[in-house]
Design brief:
Strand order of the largest sheet: 3-1-2-9
Number of helices: 9
Order of helices and strands: HHHHEEHEEHEEHEEHEEH
Structural class: alpha+beta
Number of domains: 3
Radius of gyration: 18 Å
Number of strands: 10
CATH class of the largest domain: Alpha Beta
Oligomer: single chain
Largest sheet: 4 strands, antiparallel
Helix content: 40-55%
Distance between the termini: 31 Å
Low-confidence stretches: 16-21
Length: 250
């Protein structure tokens, strides 16, 4: 699939200059809540929950916070209104397609915040389905390093993965259908240092951004969206050169 890592590369480069926000704790805690609600509360038997807990611990979230999030998901902790997973879609400057994954207790509030963010940054919030057809939902396992690509290929084939890509910083990303993500991660962990496991929306095609003003509008929109408390993840189908990205986020 073309363009697998383009958005991931942009996200990584942006992260190098982004200020770490306390929102990360909120995002990871909410992911635990939803995972606990969608499956059994025991991490050993709930891959989504186990992965969410691992990410929370890696980010330094205290165990008490993790336990509280699990209790909220299990319904044994008074959490007020329940959270639900809602996906929103829209267009940014240059006709770029944008998917927003949210966890919210108030759809109307979240939609209003998103609509304002789009309108102030050269885009517009669309109807459900307006851009999701341009993306495929995939499981992704990131490998921090490897010494032999043949060994990696052998493991990828054994695990029933679809493809893999080498990143610019010497890592690898392996792609599979969502239902096979747990199996893939277990097999790769046997021989490689796995740095991340996630479900990701991947664009079928990407839009090349070359105009500085459009680039600035897009990145400002994405920063605004990601700063919203209800937003868990933002994905877009554009790419730009490292040189333009460096100028834009400088």
């Amino acid at each position: 699939m073309a363009g697998h890592s383009k958005w991931a590369n942009i996200k990584r480069q942006k992260a190098r200059v982004d200020v770490v926000k306390g929102k990360t704790f909120t995002q990871l805690s909410r992911a635990i809540i939803v995972a606990a609600r969608n499956g059994i509360v025991d991490p050993a038997g709930n891959f989504q929950l186990r992965t969410a807990i691992e990410k929370a611990k890696a980010a330094g979230i205290p165990n008490d916070n993790i336990d509280r999030a699990i209790a909220k998901g299990a319904g044994t902790f008074d959490e007020g209104k329940p959270l639900e997973e809602v996906r929103y879609e829209g267009y940014g400057a240059g006709g770029v397609a944008i998917l927003i994954e949210s966890l919210t207790d108030n759809r109307n509030r979240t939609a209003a915040y998103l609509r304002e963010a789009f309108s102030k940054n050269g885009g517009n919030l669309g109807e459900t389905g307006c851009v999701s057809w341009m993306f495929a939902h995939k499981g992704v396992v990131a490998i921090a390093s490897f010494s032999d690509e043949d060994t990696l290929l052998e493991a990828v084939l054994e695990a029933g993965a679809e493809s893999y890509e080498l990143t610019d910083d010497g890592e690898a990303e392996v792609f599979t259908e969502p239902a096979n993500l747990e199996n893939l991660s277990q097999i790769l962990k046997q021989n490689f240092p796995v740095s991340d496991i996630e479900l990701r929306w991947i664009p079928d095609n990407t839009v090349e951004i070359t105009d500085l003003d459009v680039a600035r509008s897009l990145l400002k929109l994405i920063d605004t969206l990601e700063a919203l408390d209800d937003v868990q993840n933002v994905t877009a189908n554009f790419e730009m050169s490292d040189e333009l990205l460096a100028v834009t986020i400088a």
